Amino acid sequence: MMEDLFIGKYCHIKNNKVFVDGKLAFAGEETDVLKSFLKNLYRFLKPSYNKFFKMDEISKLGFLATEFLLEDVDISKYEEDVALIFSNSDSTLITDNKHQESIDEDVNFFPSPSVFVYTLPNIMMGEISIRHKLKGENTFFIVENFNAELLTNHINNLFLTNKAKAFIGGWVNLNFHSYEAFLYLVSKDGSAIHSAEEINRIYTNIEE
């Protein structure tokens, strides 16, 4: 029989606002473009992590969401048993487009290795893992819409097969029109049972 897993904490970033456990934690200017919003969010959190500035925007978004999520959380107690299970619908579209523009013309063929390296969405998870010294399994799903059942089933399977004891799951997406990060922490600690129904509930639980 499977032991119960619980949702310990969750973070949602969208529309230039950050919500932690459903409550407003940070509000940027409504007119801020994403680049400015992320810079202001970094200044607010003060993580003192210089590698942040070389990341592409979707990696910065996932990184900052994780900073909020793990604030005041002792993730080190799980040692190497923390898995990241992320998803989105647009992969690394913005960075892919930037890379494509650099190789479109023979005359102006100047591909940048620092851009190209971020044309895989799992690089974001690598940045987060390095930052928090996480050495567990990483999985990134590309799906049309946020799918709580897919994430829940995969997390439960990893737990049942002793692949991990704690999990960060969710959705980090960026395209030309919008952005969103929704991450949640799953382990044996927490108050809400880990289920697709509960994930869907907290995904829409925002107190503005």
Question: In words, what does this structure look like?
Answer:
With 208 residues, the protein is an alpha+beta fold. It has one domain: 3-Layer(aba) Sandwich (Peroxisomal Thiolase, Chain A, domain 1), CATH 3.40.47.10. It contains seven helices and eight strands; from the N terminus they run βββααβαααβαβββα. Strands 1, 2, 3, 4, 5, 6, 7 and 8 form an eight-stranded mixed β-sheet that branches. Helix 2 crosses helix 5 (122-132) and helix 6 (148-160) crosses helix 7 (196-203). The radius of gyration is 17 Å and the shape is globular.
CA(first)-CA(last) distance: 40 Å
CATH superfamily heading? Thiolase/Chalcone synthase
Percent strand equals 15-25%
What CATH architecture label applies?
3-Layer(aba) Sandwich
What structural class do you assign from the helix and strand content?
alpha+beta
Predict the CATH topology. Answer: Peroxisomal Thiolase, Chain A, domain 1
Number of helices: 7
Radius of gyration: 17 Å
CATH hierarchy class name: Alpha Beta
Low-confidence sequence ranges: none
Find the count of extended strands (DSSP E, 2+ residues).
Answer: 8
Q: What pattern of helices and strands is seen along the backbone?
A: EEEHHEHHHEHEEEH
Shape: globular
How do the helices and strands line up, and which of them pair or pack?
Elements: E1 6-14, E2 17-20, E3 23-27, H1 34-45, H2 57-70, E4 82-88, H3 93-103, H4 113-116, H5 122-132, E5 138-142, H6 148-160, E6 166-174, E7 179-187, E8 192-193, H7 196-203
Parallel strand pairs: 4-5, 4-6
Antiparallel strand pairs: 1-2, 1-7, 1-8, 2-3, 6-7
Helix pairs in contact: 1-2, 2-5, 6-7
